[in-house]
Amino acid sequence: MPIGVPRVFYQSPDGELAWVDIYNLIYRERLFFLGGTVDGELSNQLISLMIYLSLDKDNKDMYMFINSPGGWVISGMAIYDTMQSLPPDVQTICMGLAASIASFILVGGAITKRIAFPHARVMIHQPASSLYLTQTGEFVVEAEELLKLRETITGVYAQRTGKPIWVVSEDMERDAFMSATEAQTHGIVDHVAVQKQK
């Protein structure tokens, strides 16, 4: 039985008390969740939230928690570009999985502020397409565009990880899964979160 969106009690800055859904409250604290497949709708929602909150004169960091299998390349690149163009830093935190374009968004966090939880997994690979569904003429055009995207994505990974382009390109040839510590060694994240001792 679904429980719906949880609601919590909130006191606004002017002292007014109200029940608000938990996401509304979380967004006010500049916390975002990329959970699920990256598509046009999800990317537009995250982009609009980041832009809206960056209009505030206070340039406090934003936090993007990622648990995503990836998705549409262009939608993911739009999120990445928005993160790079806003005044506040965007800290990225991988909890669970950051695969494909989600790992691209993860590496796009502010350098020194990219984190993975200890049991998180990261996967990078080359962009894919559904070329088999197109006609021959479109196939050639789409293949050229795919090569341009691969070149751009490889360049960004190389720049943000400090790895040579040839290393990143070789790693992207097939699905390259990494543990949190391997992702840190690779330069995709800067820190692995420390679990508290009980």
Which structural traits does this protein have?
7 helices; 2-enoyl-CoA Hydratase, Chain A, domain 1; serine-type endopeptidase activity; transmembrane; hydrolase; 9 strands; globular; ClpP/TepA; transmembrane helix; 23% strand; 7-stranded mixed β-sheet; 198 residues; 41% helix
Task: Offer a concise description of the structure.
With about 200 residues, the protein is an alpha/beta fold.
Question: How does this model look, in words?
Answer:
It is an enzyme of class 3 (hydrolase). Its EC number is 3.4.21.92. One of its GO terms (biological process) is protein quality control for misfolded or incompletely synthesized proteins. The active site is at residues 100, 125. InterPro entries: ClpP, ClpP/crotonase-like_dom_sf, ClpP/TepA, ClpP_His_AS. The protein is globular and about 60 Å long. A hairpin with a 5-residue loop joins strand 1 (7-11) and strand 2. The mean pLDDT is 90. The protein has helices at residues 22-28, 40-54, 73-85, 101-107, 136-161, 165-171, 180-186; strands at 7-11, 17-21, 31-35, 62-68, 90-99, 114-116, 121-124, 176-179, 191-192. It starts with 6 loop residues before the first strand and ends in a 6-residue tail after the last strand. It contains seven helices and nine strands, in the order E-E-H-E-H-E-H-E-H-E-E-H-H-E-H-E. Strands 3, 4, 5, 6, 7, 8 and 9 form a seven-stranded mixed sheet that branches. Strands 1-2 form a two-stranded antiparallel sheet. With 198 residues, the protein is α/β, with parallel strands linked by helices. Helices cover 41% and strands 23% of the residues. The protein has a single domain (30-192), classed as 2-enoyl-CoA Hydratase, Chain A, domain 1 (Alpha-Beta Complex).
